[in-house]
Amino acid sequence: MALIPEQILDDIQARADIVDVISRYVPLKRAGRHYKAVCPFHKERTPSFHVNTDKQIFHCFGCGVGGNVFSFLMQQERLTFPEAVRQVAEQVGVPVPDQGDASRSGERDRLLEILAKASQYYERMLASPSTGRPARDYLRTRGVAERTRETFHLGYAPSGGDHLLQAAKRSRIPQELLEQTGLILRGKRGLVDRFRGRLLFPIQDPRGRVLGFGGRSLAGQDPKYLNSPETSVYSKGRQLFGLLQAKDAIVKAKLAIVVEGYFDCALLWQAGFPQTVSPLGTAFTPDQARLLARYTDRVVLAFDADAAGEAAALRGLDVLVEQGMQVTVAQLPAGVDPDEFVQAHGAPALQGLIDRSLGLIEFLTACAAKRYNLRHPDDKVRAAQSVLATIARVPNAMLRAEYVRLLADRLNVNAQAMAQELEKIRLHASSSPPRGPAAPPRAGSSTNGTAAAAPVQRRTGGQSAEQLFTALVLDQPARWDTLQGEIVLEDITDRRYRRILDVICELRAQGRAQPTPAQVISRLRDDEAGALVSDLVGVAQAEPGQDEALRKCVQRLRRDALQRQREQVREQIRVAQELGSEDEYKRLLIMTTTIDKQYQQLVKNTVPAGKEG
Question: pTM for this structure?
Answer without folding.
Answer: 0.68
